Amino acid sequence: MSLFVFFAVLAAAAMHAIWNALVKVHLDRFLSITLMTLGMGVAALVALPFVEVPKADVWPYILASVVFHMGYRTFLVGAYKAGDFAQTYPLARGTAPLLAALGGIVVLAEMPAPLAILGIVLLSAGTLVLSFRGGAHLERLNLRAVGFALGTSIFIASYTLSDGSGARLAATASSYAAWLFVCDALWALVLCVVFRGPQALPVLARDWKAGIYTGVLSGGAYWIVMWAMTKAPIASVASLRETSILFAMMISVFALGEKMTAWRGAAVFSIIAGVVALRLG
Question: pTM (2 decimals)?
Answer without folding.
Answer: 0.86
